[in-house]
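Quick one:
INPUT:
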């Protein structure tokens, strides 16, 4: 295939996924890594660094240099991620003005409904090493997400979600000598502190009132999550690769779970949390199984410059009897992801510099990674649909990552 032909194929892939379709509720995620989001979330058949933990555990086998006999492959600390959406400033200003009188805030409700607050802070320090010839990863992580938006039905309330996860991760990958076929497994212990309810706008103005409400109304729970996946590189020319992963493998099921997409009560399987629940109907009481399928190719333009083209489908539902592995009713546009990443260096090793772009839920994404000595910087911006109707409503978000790599 000529370069011009390849460009046409890439463009057709990206444009076709951008076709408008109806969709609603935002899909919950266990963790939001920076680099994969710049690639449109299409990382299942790429997964060649520590982000394999969150996308495809089989990729842990590709986090070290080929034929390397080193026992210690990489150490990343503190691996901090911070993020916010572009509308957060307007939302904060809207609910902070006129502290003595709530009515002006309510008058702005129609405008603030399109300007939600979203912020995230995460950390994922990890170590990748080889034991007995087998790639391993051990680490800890924290992931806290805050969301708030004025309620459509009652403009004196704000739908608010605060979910904080703290956990430990251990992963292992088995691979053949050529590293063309790999199987990976990850175990995660998660302690979750979650609040999902509506809060009066007046309480958003008072830090003490907000803290008290969240503290008294939060679910406190724990769970053991299992993730698994496979990656197969079919040939050496352009490295055509197939990836399949199952995140939150079904270690339990929850009866009578209200699926936010199908609007039906179902028996949903995945990672089930157990503990003290102030709101047993909260979505965060279970992380449903997420089955992903990905394809990628790596065309090379020169010995030092190449690209990765990736296409993914996430949240593929499987139903056996009355048991649902994954959430049904998610619109196709929310399931498909596509992207292209340009990079320098050996395609079999982690690149010190990448630029990526893609489509996530029909919205444009962009990202870059830069390694300056031991300092690694990552940035990505992407869109998420937050509408509860068939009309699309984009929430533009940005992530910034910083780590020291040894």
């Amino acid at each position: 295939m000529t370069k011009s032909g390849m460009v046409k194929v890439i463009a057709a892939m990206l444009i076709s996924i951008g076709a408008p379709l109806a969709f609603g509720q935002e899909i919950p995620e266990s963790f939001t890594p920076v680099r994969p989001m710049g690639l449109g979330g299409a990382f299942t058949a790429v997964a060649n660094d520590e982000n394999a933990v969150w996308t495809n555990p089989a990729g842990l086998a590709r986090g070290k240099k080929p034929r390397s006999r080193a026992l210690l492959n990489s150490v990343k600390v503190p691996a901090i991620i911070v993020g916010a959406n572009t509308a957060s400033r307007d939302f904060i200003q809207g609910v902070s003005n006129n502290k003595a009188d709530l009515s002006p805030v309510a008058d702005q409700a129609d405008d603030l409904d399109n300007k939600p607050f979203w912020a995230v802070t995460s950390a994922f320090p990890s170590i990748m090493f080889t034991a007995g010839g087998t790639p391993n990863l051990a680490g800890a992580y924290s992931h806290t997400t805050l969301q708030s938006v004025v309620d459509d039905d009652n403009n004196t309330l704000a739908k608010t979600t605060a979910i904080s996860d703290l956990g430990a991760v251990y992963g292992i990958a088995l691979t053949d000598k050529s590293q063309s076929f790999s199987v990976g497994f990850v175990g995660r212990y998660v302690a979750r502190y979650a609040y999902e309810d509506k809060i009066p706008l007046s309480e958003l103005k008072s830090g003490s009132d907000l803290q008290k409400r969240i503290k008294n109304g939060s679910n406190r729970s724990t769970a053991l999550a299992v993730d698994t996946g496979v990656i197969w590189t079919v040939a050496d020319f352009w490295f055509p690769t197939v990836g399949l992963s199952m995140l939150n493998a079904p270690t339990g099921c929850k009866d009578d779970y209200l699926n936010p997409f199908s609007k039906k009560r179902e028996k949903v399987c995945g990672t089930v949390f157990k503990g003290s629940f102030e709101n047993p109907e909260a979505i965060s009481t279970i992380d449903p199984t997420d089955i992903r399928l990905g394809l990628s190719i790596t065309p090379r333009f020169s010995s030092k410059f190449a690209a990765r083209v990736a296409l993914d489908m996430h949240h593929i539902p499987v139903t056996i009897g009355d048991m649902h592995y994954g959430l049904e009713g998610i619109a196709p546009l929310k399931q498909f992801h596509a992207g292209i990443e340009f990079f320098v260096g050996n395609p079999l090793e982690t690149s010190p510099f990448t630029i990526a772009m893609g489509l996530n839920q029909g919205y444009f994404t962009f990202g870059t990674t830069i390694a300056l000595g031991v300092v690694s910087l990552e940035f990505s911006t992407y869109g998420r649909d937050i509408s509860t109707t068939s009309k699309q409503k984009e929430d533009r978000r940005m992530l910034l990552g910083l780590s020291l790599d040894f």
